[in-house]
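help with this:

***
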Amino acid sequence: MRSTKIVTSFVVSQEKILILKRSNHVKSMKGLWGAVSGIIEGNEDPLHRAKIEIFEEIGAKPESIELLKAGKDMTVSSPQYPDHQWHIFPFLFKMETMEVLLNWENSSYRWISPDDIHQYETVPNLDEVLLNLL
């Protein structure tokens, strides 16, 4: 079975978490809601990759975010790819502003209460990743 290492970062501001709707331009999980995510390249440090993805996907500079927690890494399977697993490194960051500047990877965003995550069609196991961080 193939495995891909990724970071998944939740950003919190004013007691709300940020979720992003994946655009039709991305390779996988199109149209599903997720957190800020990206593939870890080679032996790259997951925290370093998480900060890069946050800047690329929502425009937040490293100095404007604060790491609150690095969760325990976990592996999940995807119904879209039967012989594939995602090895997820979860992070929780705080940001003062709720200003978001999306790039092409996501088509929209919402600031929601963590309890409302179940109201959205999300990437596999997003609620478990969030629970791992709270």
Q: What stands out?
A: The chain has two helices and eight strands. The first strand starts at residue 2 and ends at 13.
